Q: What sequence folds into this?
């Protein structure tokens, strides 16, 4: 009898957490969900998060808010999300910069701090200048001027160690030029500074400069992609077409604190896939110079781990001064 009771007790202790997790998932969400965006409003991460929030609301039948917490090349917002309650009610937009934080000494953030619920997009880079800047009417003009004036061309990015900083640095390395890199708390303020004439160029996502291009204030000189963007920038050449072998860009994923119950992670992952599958989302992303490339939780986790290895190898041989 004692043996039967002992077995029953062990099974109860084993099954109780599973039952609790399943119950938590069944009740989820119990209140509003927040998506933490680690950059200022108006950039690619912010735009993506706001359109996906609408899709998540439909899938989860609850309220999903977007909250911008910028600073530290994304570390402020991601750290805040990492330290939030692991109950699924705080989601973080995860940019490629997550995998670079530790090697660059920006923060102690690592991919293992999060349980990823999916990857959403690929985010290419575009070399962009003011439309009335007669010095730069082509990539060739830009590079020749930079070579003749080392350290004088100011290029804005979304923070030291950000993917857009790395994009400009790769362009420097490939063309043997020297830029003056100017960091901002996200791409949006960098673009605003460019339009105001405070810097000479930016290397950010095409969607982040699209409004300025359409308003006649900015011009894109080249995309840092393998092929042209046939949707929004069909007339813009790639750097490779100009003989510069630089292809680089970011990506956007979503994650929750690492100890979030698996049943909740699964529910969020299913909701994210539903939100990313809508024609509204696909059209919105394509029109802003990004690419929809959804990955489920398992695939996203594997991909991000691989990216950590790739960028750590790259950055160990790169001078980001």
A:
């Amino acid at each position: 009898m004692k043996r039967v009771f002992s077995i029953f007790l062990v099974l109860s202790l084993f099954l109780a957490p599973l039952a609790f997790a399943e119950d938590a998932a069944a009740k989820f969400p119990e209140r509003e969900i927040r998506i933490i965006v680690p950059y200022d409003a108006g950039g690619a991460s912010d735009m993506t998060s706001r359109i996906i929030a609408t899709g998540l609301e439909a899938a989860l039948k609850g309220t999903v808010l977007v909250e911008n917490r910028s600073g530290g090349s994304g570390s402020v917002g991601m750290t805040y999300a990492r330290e939030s309650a692991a109950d699924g009610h705080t989601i973080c937009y995860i940019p490629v910069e997550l995998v670079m934080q530790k090697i660059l000494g920006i923060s102690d953030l690592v991919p293992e701090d999060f349980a990823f619920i999916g990857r959403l997009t690929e985010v290419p880079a575009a070399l962009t200048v003011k439309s009335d800047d007669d010095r730069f009417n082509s990539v060739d003009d830009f590079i020749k001027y930079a070579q003749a004036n080392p350290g004088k061309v100011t290029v804005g990015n979304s923070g030291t160690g950000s993917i857009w900083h790395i994009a400009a640095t790769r362009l420097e390395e490939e063309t043997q030029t020297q830029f003056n890199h100017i960091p901002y708390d996200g791409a949006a303020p960098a673009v605003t500074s460019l339009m105001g004439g405070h810097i000479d160029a930016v290397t950010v996502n095409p969607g982040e400069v699209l409004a300025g291009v359409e308003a006649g204030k900015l011009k894109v000189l080249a995309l840092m992609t393998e092929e042209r963007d046939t949707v929004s920038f069909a007339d813009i050449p790639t750097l490779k077409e100009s003989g510069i072998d630089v292809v680089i860009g970011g990506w956007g994923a979503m994650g929750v604190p690492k100890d979030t119950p698996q049943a909740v992670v699964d529910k969020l992952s299913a909701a994210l896939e539903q939100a990313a599958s809508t024609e509204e989302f696909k059209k919105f992303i394509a029109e802003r110079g990004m690419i929809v490339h959804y990955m489920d939780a398992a695939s996203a986790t594997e991909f991000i781990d691989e990216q950590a290895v790739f960028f750590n190898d790259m950055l160990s041989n790169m001078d980001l001064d």
Remarks:
- The CA atoms of residues 169 and 320 lie 7 Å apart.
- The longest strand covers residues 114-124.
